[in-house]
Amino acid sequence: MPFALVSDRSTLEWADLGILAGLLVVYLVLAIPFPGLVLRPLFWLATRLIYRIKVTGAENVPATGPALLLSNHVTYVDWLLVWAASPRKVRFVAWAGWTRNPLFRWFLRVTDSILINGEGGPKQIVRSLQQITAALDRGEAICLFPEGALSRGGGTMLPFRKGFERVLKDAKQHVPVIPICLYQLWGSIFSYAGGKVLWKWPERIPYRVSVAFGTPLQPTVTAQEVRLAIQALSADVAIRESGDLRPVHRQFVRTAARFSNLRKVAWIDASAGKPVEFTYLKALVGSICMSRWLAGRIGTEKNVGLWLPTSAGSALANIGLNFLGRTTVNLNYTAGIDATRSAVRQTGMKTIVTSKRFLARVPLELEGVNLIHLEDALAGITKWQKVRALLAAAILPGWALEHLVLGLGGHKPDDIATIIFSSGSTGEPKGVPLTFRNLSSNTAASSVHLGLLKSDRLLAILPFFHSFGYTLLLWLPVQVGGSAVFYPDPRQAKEVGELAKAHRCTGMLGTATFLRFYLRRSEPDSFRSLRLLVCGAERLPPALAKEFEEKFGVLPMEGYGCTELSPVVAANVPDVNVRGIKQIRNKIGTVGQPLPGVACRIVDPDTDRPVPPTSEGMLQVKGPNLMPGYLNRPDLTAKVVKDGWYTTGDMAKIDEDGFVIITGRLSRFAKIAGEMVPLEKVEEDMHAVLGTNDRVLAVTALPDEKRGERLVVLYLPAFTMPPREMAQKLGERGIPNLWVPGDRDYFAVKELPVLGTGKLDLRRVKDLALEVVK
User: Can you give the pLDDT at residue 229?
Assistant: First the structure.
């Protein structure tokens, strides 16, 4: 019978099956004397079928001679990916505990792995390190994972162990250190995403991953420096890969159009009395109808303003305008008419979407601008338009809606999605354009870092003109299939607490100022359902966080971001404990660890050079969330963005585990007699002396002929301590005399100027100080 894997009858012949069986037997027999020869094709096949690997920087691995490859550790197959990506043979360092399993013991032997046992005592560890050193001295390439265990939370790196530092010190020749970043692996079946390995459905096959080899480091490098190098590599990879992310408005269509989501609640609008539910189907239909209604009323202008509170109507208008390819500009209705006029002038907008109901509460008087009212949309959208949109949304798959019905295929990652204006707390508001790339990368990274689930419901109380409110409350929930409760006034503590309780919200974003309102006016069981409470925009005093936890049973955690960074950079989140390994993800007094794909570094503010590990300096950030540049101000952009790194203006430190500690805003330092005095630190200590978590004073600096600057304290009536007593108690706390305000530096005011977010309005504080001092 002729040999043919597929015969004329298109079936396998018995002879063919016999040949295949024979080949399999030969293959297995060869595995005994030649395991490497046999396993290598299997490894190659596995990495091509299950993963689609993109390799960058392979030229950084020396072709010959010793090399120590250090990688982050996300999955149980990280070694396989490094093996497949490396241009030369690599030996791996593995945990000796794997030898308890006969199959793994055989596998480690045939792959010539170096075993290390962290549980076997110092002598065994030293012996293993000596083996690694000896291998390097023989000119081999060795790969190890300094974390010593897999990441348990969001792909964030565990603390780095320092054993490799001894290896490098003991090596007899120069050993280049190659940092490796394994990216996009969190969520794969071999990671601990969801708290388990293997027993979960793969998100996709093949799974796209990136393996990046960094520039060689000197053998004198420290564990923290390697960690920062891997983090910087991750930012470079994230920037390259962010172009493949689906823009947020297109992802909203895909999420909403899933059959399982159509009847699921996307939004609960509590902005106008009785809460109104919007299912994903209703939200999608409303967005489609809104976009078509607006299309005939905004002409060809690119930038369109919105004068609306946090509500479903505002969400529909924002999404509808993005469907039309327009750039939204959510105007700050708490900043005053001058700031609004500045935004209108800078963007050249001619149309503002608003509502008659909101205008009655917050009037807007501008000349030369056309106002479009949402109430007119409710009356102007016909039943037939609603039915047509409903049928399309309910029947068609997401890709068809996205491309054929809405025509969003031409909307690219680098299109400008929105322009958000800075608070203007230190000058005229700056326009910050954010692209779909910025928003998509930041929502994707935030969902992973925060561990956001489809079952999560966020209490959305921040305004959309605030970057945290816009990105994390408008867009983030609908990217993952979660939900949000919209309420426009975070200062209404009683109502906010009742909404959190009634709708069993699991997450909330806020500020320290708003927490103070809730402590005074909300019931103890108001926030019991929250599993995640992150505060930003201003410093979160540890005493305030503790008091909040004692009353409500949930610990507020501090995060950090900037409008220019879309906005999230870092955040503390709850610790995780999976299979006996606890990963610390929250440290009080820090703003947490950076998001995946976001890198932080500390530089000298004068020389712009990196400072030694754990030292204080200027915080710089890099990642795909960085804005393209200030609106119409390339000069300002050039001052703060260099080589992809954004200079935040915040002084900070990064500890050995990668947690960022903000020590003060550079603009909030006074220079007195040549010494830098941190105003926030002075404020914090004065409040600690008073024993209150309420803000009753603000410290600013004014010019002084003798010492360069002087401190000025503006205080409310609740501040009753005599200045001399305050000075004495500050001295007892170890505060330097130069930092202590004098008797003549205290001035009573009726109120402290704040922004709509509750953050101090620093510019108005200084202006007020100038007035009262005169």
Answer: 95
For the domain spanning 246-489, the CATH number is: 3.40.50.12780
Q: How far apart are CA 564 and CA 768, in angstroms?
A: 28
Structure tokens at 505: 């919200």
Q: State the DSSP H helix or E strand holding residue 206, giving kind and residue range, or none if neither.
A: none
Q: Where are the beta strands (DSSP E) in 379-494?
A: 416-421, 431-435, 457-460, 483-486
CATH code reported for the domain at 32-244: 3.40.1130.10
Dihedral angle computed from the Cα positions of residues 455, 459, 464 and 466, in that order, rounded to the nearest 10 degrees: -110
Spell out the residues 6+ positions from residue 228 whose beta carbon is closer than 8 angstroms to its own: 599, 601, 654, 658
168 neighbors 68 (Cβ within 8 angstroms): yes
Reply yes or no on whether the pLDDT at 21 is more than 80: no
- The strand order across the sheet containing 327-330 reads 370-373, 351-354, 303-306, 327-330, 416-421, 431-435
Task: Give per-residue pLDDT as tens, 571-587.
Answer: 999 998 887 778 899 99
For position 109, what pLDDT does the model report? 74
Look at strands 457-460 and 483-486 and give their pairing. parallel
Strand pairing class (207-213; 114-116)? unpaired
**CATH number among 3.30.1340.30, 1.10.10.10, 3.30.300.30, 3.50.50.60, domain 673-773:** 3.30.300.30
User: Which run of H or E residues covers position 74?
Assistant: none
**Rounded CA separation 302/610 (Å):** 41
- Cα atoms in the 13 Å half-sphere on the side-chain side of 769: 22
Residues 592-601: b if buried by 16+ CB within 10 A, e if exposed: bbbbbbbbbb
Average pLDDT over every residue of 221-243? 94
Whether pLDDT at 275 is above 70: yes
> Which pLDDT score, from 0 to 100, does residue 480 have?
93
378-421 pLDDT, tens digit each = 888 889 999 999 999 999 999 999 999 999 988 999 999 999 99
Grade residue 26 by pLDDT with cuts at 50, 70 and 90: low
